[in-house]
What we know:
The chain is of the alpha+beta class and 543 residues long.
Amino acid sequence: xxxxxxxxxxxxxxxxxxxxxxxxxxxxxxxxxxxxxxxxxxxxxxxxxxxxxxxxxxxxxxxxxxxxxxxxxxxxxxxxxxxxxxxxxxxxxxxxxxxxxxxxxxxxxxxxxxxxxxxxxxxxxxxxxxxxxxxxxxxxxxxxxxxxxxxxxxxxxxxxxxxxxxxxxxxxxxxxxxxxxxxxxxxxxxxxxxxxxxxxxxxxxxxxxxxxxxxxxxxxxxxxxxxxxxxxxxxxxxxxxxxxxxxxxxxxxxxxxxxxxxxxxxxxxxxxxxxxxxxxxxxxxxxxxxxxxxxxxxxxxxxxxxxxxxxxxxxxxxxxxxxxxxxxxxxxxxxxxxxxxxxxxxxxxxxxxxxxxxxxxxxxxxxxxxxxxxxxxxxxxxxxxxxxxxxxxxxxxxxxxxxxxxxxxxxxxxxxxxxxxxxxxxxxxxxxxxxxxxxxxxxxxxxxxxxxxxxxxxxxxxxxxxxxxxxxxxxxxxxxxxxxxxxxxxxxxxxxxxxxxxxxxxxxxxxxxxxxxxxxxxxxxxxxxxxxxxxxxxxxxxx
Length: 543
Ligand SMILES: Nc1ncnc2c1ncn2[C@@H]1O[C@H](COP(=O)(O)OP(=O)(O)O)[C@@H](O)[C@H]1O
Ligand SMILES: [Mg+2]
């Protein structure tokens, strides 16, 4: 007999289901309960509730009633959402069938599946969003499911929809607040942390947690050809920190070039991903995001394998999240570079100041003291000729040393008359002391340059000349100064035995110091050297 309105026990069951909804059951137990009630109320032998993933393409949960564990186990995987179940996913409308197999969309049952004939499927929808479907089969007594059954199940399905929506809202709200907290943490670390490594480490760790990635790595350019992994979090993070990665043969290198984020759902099929590295970290999927500073890529964040996702894929939301963190990391890198440059600039300036003070002291005080000793000795001449003469020679030599030292430390002529006269002096005394001819051409520079440019170029020529005596075995050396378009160029060439600039280590801060000084002034320094044509150092600075 068909009932068109819910009878009393049915109403009670419905009510109970509603109460269950208000209690704090987990989503799974709640869906299980609703599925059971639906079976009870309609007299169905089997019932199931499938929840569609937020992306809408597959079933993310599948709750069943009426199948014992053994049967469920022998059927295997829950349905993928093809056949009749698929039809209900794409077309969210109730469906009643006398025999499932009769519907043209049916694809049949997997092996070990109990036979099912009569069928009622009702979509789980709320405000137009389809969250899944409630399915019932095998109505007691062999009859078909009725319209009243359909209505009742519709009510239960609506409750299921509310529960699923609540759970999703709760999940995304927690995720949001977690993301916000981590962002605030990273942002405040940016303001307080002076140690870049610690900051990048924090970025990697928080991102790995939020993305639920197996591994997150952060790489910065280490040279024109390589990136260095400077921070990592997750599986095997310890082993990859410090690893160098070729820029040409890696995805990270390409991303650094292009400056765009990218998601790769199958690393096996990606031609840019570095095969060795992918194998080493055993990754299936990946996510790459550049660190952008005013649109310029300065580093790359990589995440591998989303844990929890059945196919390990990341989503577009994950990309956006990583981009937010990458922006913070970029600011951190920039700040730290600026702090380092400032510190270096202060050190260089302080050094020059100290040298200037020492030079003045040597020249003025020590030099004068020695001169007066010399004058005193003159008066003693003839008294004890031999010993006085020896003493006088010693004092003269010392006085020369002191003057030379004073000039080396910081020639007064550099402060008083500028770069060109100072270089002329330097070239002259160099030639006198070493016997190596210096060809200086600096006619292009007619006026004074900014003090730090004059000092930097002077120090570079000075160090280059010292290197020529120490290492080059040269006969000639030339120093050319030219200027064009507000840029000063200096070229120091010798005809010595040359060296290999890449391999040169030196004990000194010589070549390295030159480069640092020039970079502080936003200039460039290149060293070319061969055993046949000697060494050429070219410097260019804006002035
Ligand atoms: N003009 C040059 N000719 C030959 N070799 C050079 C020259 N300049 C530098 N080098 C090589 O480069 C190395 C590094 O130079 P540098 O950084 O000034 O350190 P240092 O002079 O203290 O050794 C030197 O040890 C030397 O081998
Ligand atoms: Mg040197």
